Amino acid sequence: MRRGLIGFIALFGATVQAFGHASDGGHLLILPTGYYMAAAALSVAASFLIFLIAPAKPLHREQEANRSDLSRFSATSALSFVFLIMLISAGYIGSRDPLSNPLPLMIWTVLWVGVTLVQGLAGDLWRFINPWRFPCWLIFHLFGKPRYRLPQWLGSWPALFQFIGFAWFELIDPAPTDPGRLANAVLIYFCVNLIAAVLFGYRDWMRRGEFLSAFYAILRTKTPRALSRTQTIFLICVLASVSFDGFSKTFFWLGHVGINPLDYPGRSAMMIINSVGMAGFALVMIALFYTMIAIGHALTGAKGSFADHMGTVAISLIPIALVYHFSHYLTSLLIEGQYALAALSDPFGLGWNLLGLRNLHVRAGLTSGHGPVWLVWNLQAFAITLGHVGAVYRAHLTVASLYETRLQRFRFELPLTTLMIFYTIFGLWLLATPAAG
């Protein structure tokens, strides 16, 4: 087993001597991507065989920890609530430049990228900085507990629909980084979810209604506690949105929808076609995942419906969602993260220098030039490959609790692993293919 692990790591590592160049906006990355794709695909396939041969100890289900109660005052949530008010205010009265106003930078870069990665890889950060926790605690302390219960038949559909709106605003809306426009969206979103949490209870609404809390709870899933059907669809939609964000800028997509990629017309001209494309992308990914699970279950010859295993196997997608988030947004995090620090020093554009970083010189060279581009590309490629290997491993441990024999597990995992191999190749293709806009 040890030799096998060393072998497929060496196979992947043997491809690192490559050169490339990327520039801002539309760019073309010149790399021997075929070698990367082949090595990554073989690494995922090899990991499948290694994990299959190795003994698998089924994970035991554990009950979900109750971490969303409001029994105690949360100082960090109070600070987060005040900070959010400051950001919304900055959106209204601060600089109109999205790279100088802290609201767009904190929402799209620090929250959606940074906090997501910390939540999935390091710990339950959101539990402490959730801005709804403090106002809900205060309201319940003054006026009593909520009067209504969120119907069970709703599942996580409220969170899913909220995410669809969020993804559309991020990827399709003509000006998601406009400070005033974003301030309106954030204020409405916060108030709607605050009212819902007060009516239906903080814990239940955060778990099934507010999409960030629902998504972060999924990322923290460690044991084969089956996700609900809507949670499974939700997770796939998150993965699909990140993938489509990259795909929608490729020469391939633009050429097929009749757009000259060298004369990109802007987001306004692409709203309808990208809305249809994003929806179609998500539906295709959901269909592929369900189909592979159905084929795998049929190959095992086991009784029962494949749908019974969907939610359990779906947690194997969590590592893939995390690494795609990392790879897709890495350059944004490196560059716009610097702008965020500078903007926080002068949030209202009044000449303040609260952090001493107002005049911070942003180092855009972190993602340009031969050396940085080579490093960034290899980090992205390695992350995608490692994420799929982790997904195969997690699926293997999960399937061990569903099927008794090794042959059944092999048959069930084979279609799903095949899908992961092709998705690995697709992910690396997205990173290397020419893009515009």
TrEMBL record:
<feature type="transmembrane region" description="Helical">
    <location>
        <begin position="34"/>
        <end position="54"/>
    </location>
</feature>
<feature type="transmembrane region" description="Helical">
    <location>
        <begin position="414"/>
        <end position="432"/>
    </location>
</feature>
<feature type="transmembrane region" description="Helical">
    <location>
        <begin position="105"/>
        <end position="129"/>
    </location>
</feature>
<feature type="transmembrane region" description="Helical">
    <location>
        <begin position="232"/>
        <end position="252"/>
    </location>
</feature>
<feature type="transmembrane region" description="Helical">
    <location>
        <begin position="150"/>
        <end position="169"/>
    </location>
</feature>
<feature type="transmembrane region" description="Helical">
    <location>
        <begin position="272"/>
        <end position="294"/>
    </location>
</feature>
<keyword id="KW-0472">Membrane</keyword>
<feature type="transmembrane region" description="Helical">
    <location>
        <begin position="374"/>
        <end position="393"/>
    </location>
</feature>
<protein>
    <recommendedName>
        <fullName>Fenitrothion hydrolase</fullName>
    </recommendedName>
</protein>
<feature type="transmembrane region" description="Helical">
    <location>
        <begin position="75"/>
        <end position="93"/>
    </location>
</feature>
<feature type="transmembrane region" description="Helical">
    <location>
        <begin position="181"/>
        <end position="202"/>
    </location>
</feature>
<keyword id="KW-0812">Transmembrane</keyword>
<keyword id="KW-1133">Transmembrane helix</keyword>
<feature type="transmembrane region" description="Helical">
    <location>
        <begin position="306"/>
        <end position="326"/>
    </location>
</feature>
